[in-house]
Amino acid sequence: MAAKKKAAPKKKGKRTPKLAPSTVKRGLAATEVALPIDHPDIAGVVELVRQAGGAPLGAYREPLGGRPLLLASLPFSAVQPTVRAPAVPPERPLTVIGVPDGHVP
Predict the structure, then answer these.
(1) Which of 14, 76, 85, 96 is a good FRET partner for 103, with 20 to 30 A between their CA atoms?
(2) What SS3 class is residue 47?
(3) For 14-50, how does the pLDDT look when each residue is reduced to its tens digit (9 = 90+)?
(4) How far is CA 95 from CA 85, 98, 103, in A?
C-alpha cells in the first residue's frame, strides 16, 4: 500500500473584505421601469414609428437614468443603412502593397 502524501500547508495571505450592498438606493424601482406605449413622454416617437409603417412593441424607462426608451419594429424600406467607412472616390486609385502598378491582376 502506498504511503499517504501530506497536504501542502495553505498560504496565509491578505483577506479581501466582503462587499456589502450599498445602503443608498440608486435608480428606479422595478415598478417604475415599465412605461405604457401611450405615455406622453414617448408619444412623438410612437407617432413617427407609425407614420413610417412600423409598430411600437414596448416602452420602458432606463433603470438608472430614467430616460424613456421605445422598442419598435420598422419595415426594411424605412431604415437607411449605416455608413461604416467613407466611400472612396472612383478617381482615386487604390494602392495594393507588393504590386508595382497598384492594380490586382
Answers:
(1) 85
(2) helix
(3) 777 888 877 888 888 889 999 999 999 999 999 999 9
(4) 17, 9, 7
For residues 57 and 46, give the distance between their C-alpha atoms in angstroms, rounded to a whole number. Answer: 10
Contact partners, residue 26, CB within 8 Å, separation at least 6: 64
Question: Alpha carbon of 39 to those of 35, 51, 100: distances in Å?
Answer: 7, 18, 64
Residue 14 and residue 33 in contact, taking contact as beta carbons nearer than 8 Å: no
C-alpha distances (whole Å) from 54 to each of 10, 58, 76, 78 are 63, 12, 10, 8
Instruction: With beta carbons less than 8 A apart as the criterion, state whether 68 and 42 touch.
Output: yes
Write out the three cell numbers for 97. Answer: 502593397
Q: In what order do the strands lie in the sheet with 68-73?
A: 34-35, 55-61, 68-73
pTM above 0.85, yes or no: no
